[in-house]
Please model this.
Amino acid sequence: MNQTVNEARVPALSDVYEDYFSIGAAVNPLTLGTQKELLTKHFNSMTAENEMKFEALQPEFNRFTFDTADKMVAFAQAHDMKMRGHTLIWHNQTPDWMFLQRDGTTIDRETLLERMKKHIKTVMERYKGKIYCWDVVNEAVADEGEAILRPSKWTDIIGESFIEYAFKYAHKADPNALLFYNDYNACHPHKRDKIYQLVKGLIDKGVPIHGIGLQAHWNIVDPSYDDIKRAIETYASLGLNIHFTEMDVSVFEYHDRRTELLEPTEEMISRQADRYHTFFEIFRSYADVIDSVTFWGVADDYTWLDDFPVTGRKNWPFVFDAKHQPKSAFWNILDF
Ligand code: GLA
Model:
């Protein structure tokens, strides 16, 4: 593993990338403390990992809980960081009450639209001018099959138009906020084409949408560089802005379910460093359409991948190691 390096000689990522795009990190109340130094030195944008999701902001009907989210916004402002809002409408981490009447039966379409509007309005108005862009709809597209959208309570009760309503309500709540559609596997050709069709349909109807978020939960083999380039070109052809919103690079291939490693192998670290180098080479070459690259965390001591897809298995997906030292991947994304 890397030796401790002289901190003063480590350039700040966000300085190096100043002329290209902002460099973000997902944070939570724990990492805002434990990773504060790295965060404030290297990053000029942040996203709440879970604290602005529906269940966190409105756990019960009409009871909004903003304390933790407010603190995060205050942190971003105190450290001169931009903030991405994540996320308003999603099939996950949305409480059941949203779709139910008091007697436990499913609500009707009009009521769900009212509740959607209320949530979006309340949240976005609160953070007007403080959160510059929102992932308005997250992960609505189906991975497999011909249908564009995945079935969900949103499609069941409102129908496919739930997406346009979400964007219209968001635009009304904060006309200055940039509004994004965000998804994973967004570089895989089949899903890419569906996301393209979905978003093109929205644009053709005049729905206010300004960007596409590609989550970028990637690994040492997937996706291919060509697929990344094609995806960027396809989405950019819609005239929209591109954000990479949740980047991490697992040292395991998706189907590798080994659990015995206590440290990454040298080979993993070197393949990961090569991958990071080429990813950032691609990002730089498309910097005219990419405005933001956000990692889904900061350093290897904390990552959701420690529990996904194998519960309790350590992963090392970032450019800083568990001791907050720069890895070879870090030096590789500076070296052009
Ligand atoms: C998705 C969501 C994120 C987060 C990750 C896993 O990508 O968009 O909010 O839940 O999964 O941590």
The chain has a mean pLDDT of 97.
